[in-house]
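Question:
Write out your own:
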Amino acid sequence: MPCRSRLVLLAIIVAAFVAAPAQAKKKGGGGKGAAPSARAMSELAGKFKWGMNPEQAMKVIGDTLHEKYVELVKKEVDVYKQDQLRKEEQDELTKVKSSLVKFDGQKTGWDSSIVDKEFGQRNNESMLVLWEKDQKRFLFFWNDQLYKQYIAFNAEHPVFAGKTFDDFGKLIQNRYGQAEMKMAALRTKDEVTLDHLEWASAGDYTLWAIDQSSFYGNFCLKLLQTSKVAQVDRARVEHSPKQGTRNAVIDAITAPEQVAGDPNADVVDQITGRKAQRTNQGAKAEEPAAETGTPKKKKGGKASDPLDGMNL
C-alpha cells in the first residue's frame, strides 16, 4: 500500500475510536447488517483471490516479500548486511511454506487453537499461515481453492489496548457499515451471549468480526467466499467428524444454539472484560506467536495502523 494510502487509513482508524458515537444497546436489538462495498471487501482480502490454490497463494506471498526486500537491499550499502537481508527473505518464505497443513484426519498443532473451529478433517481442507505486521492471516482452502481468510489482530496493539470487543466492533463498522449482532443461546441458562458480528454479503464476500481476546488475546475478522460456505458445510457433514462451530468464549460456557437479536443489553460487557492471553495457544511448539512488540511510530507520533500489514 502506498505511504499516502496507509496514512489515510490510519487517520480513519484513529478517528473511528475518537469520534464514532457510542451505539446504544437496546433490548431485542441487533438490526440487519448493511452490505459493505465489494471494493472494501476486496481491499481487506489483499492480493489473495478466491479460488487460488496454495501454490498460487505462496507465489503471491513470495512476490510481495521479494518486493519488500529488494527495496531494503537497495537502501543497504554494506554487502554483508545485504546478504543477511536476502537470507531473511528466504527464511520468511520458508516459514510460510512450512506452515501448510492438510487436515486429513491426523492430529495437528491446530486442533486446540484460535482457528480450531475453522476447518474440518477428512474433507480435502488445508491451511497456510502468514505472519504479517501486528497480526496473523490464516488462508483456508477446500479442494485446493481459497475460500476463507481468518485475520487475528493483536488486542494489545496501541490502537486496541484497553479496548473491548464492543470498541473494536464500532471501529470496524465505521469502515464497513453496520453489522448485525449474532447471538448464541445457552442451553443451561435462560441467557444469551454474543457469538459474532456479521455484515450482509457484498459480491462474493461475507465478513464476520469475532472476539477471541479473552482466551487468545485477539480481535478477529473472518472473510468468507459466500458462494462456497454452504458447499463446505455440506461436505463436512458427509466427510468430517462432528465438531463445534462456536468461538472460545462460548465453548467455555456451554454448547449454544444461535439465535438472532440482542435480548440482553449488557451481554457484550459480560464477555469482553477478561484478561487477554496469547495468540499461539494450542499451536505447534515451534510456531511463533504473532508479533506482539510495540510497533514503531510514524511521523506525528501516532501508532501504526493495525491493518498496515494486510497488504491492502
About this structure: The radius of gyration is 20 Å. The longest strand covers residues 145-154. The CA atoms of residues 108 and 212 lie 21 Å apart.
